[in-house]
Amino acid sequence: MTPLLAVDALTKHFPLRSGILRRSRAVVRAVDNVSFEVGAGETLGIVGESGCGKSTTARLLMHLVPADRGTIVFAGNPVGAGSRRDLYRQMQMVFQDSYASLNPRLPVAMSIAFGPLVHGVAKPVARERAMDLLQAVGLDPALFANRYPHELSGGQRQRINVARALALEPRLVILDEAVSALDKSIEAQVLNLLIDLKVQFDLTYIFISHDLNVVRFISDRVMVMYLGKVVELGPVDRIYCDPKHPYTNALLSAVPSMDPRRRTMKAPLSGDPPNPINPPSGCRFRTRCPFAEPVCAEVAPALNMGEDGRAVACHMLMPGSGHSRA
Question: What are the structural domains of the chain?
Answer without folding.
Answer: 5-105+170-271 (3.40.50.300)
